[in-house]
Specification:
Low-confidence stretches: 44-55
Shape: globular
Strand content: 15-25%
Number of helices: 5
Number of strands: 8
Radius of gyration: 16 Å
Largest sheet: 6 strands, antiparallel
Order of helices and strands: HHHEEEEEEHHEE
Helix content: 10-25%
Length: 142
């Protein structure tokens, strides 16, 4: 494969790709290739300079809490559920990138009057780390 390119997609397409993924460690483009019936790409060599940690992905850390790469995220606000995951130390929620729970909460939610709220994401987000069997409130991990 020559290179990967960024494209903008709507939420429905993003959701289809996420549902097709076999796990958080699988790149989104592989799921999209399956959906488009393109088959597997030719083997890609991992540069020798890339460490095992970089391949696995970095954790996100904040206020003494560590969320490993692949942690699932969800929150409910104003009757709407938002979902995402930690990808290489970044909060990815509905295709948008954030660096903290509060920024992620504000980014994807609106109030009843249509404005972006200032939310304490620590209160709203629930997480399911790769080895967890159940969802946990983020604020309870402090």
């Amino acid at each position: 494969m020559d290179s990967l390119r960024m494209i903008k997609i709507d939420f429905d397409i993003h959701q289809m790709i996420e549902l097709e993924r076999k796990g958080f460690d699988e790149p989104e483009y592989l799921a999209l290739r399956r959906l488009l019936k393109l088959g597997k790409p030719e083997a890609e060599a991992v540069p020798a300079s890339q460490s095992a940690a970089a391949v696995e992905g970095r954790s996100w850390n904040g206020k003494g809490v560590e969320l490993p790469h692949g942690t699932e995220l969800r929150m409910e606000y104003n009757g709407r559920v938002s979902r995402g995951h930690i990808d290489n130390g970044i909060w990815i929620v509905e295709g948008e990138r954030a660096t903290s729970p509060s920024k992620a909460a504000k980014m994807v939610n609106v109030t009843k009057d249509g404005t972006k709220p200032s939310l304490n994401g620590w209160i709203y987000w629930e997480v399911k780390r790769p080895n967890d069997s159940r969802w946990r409130r983020l604020e309870n991990l402090k």
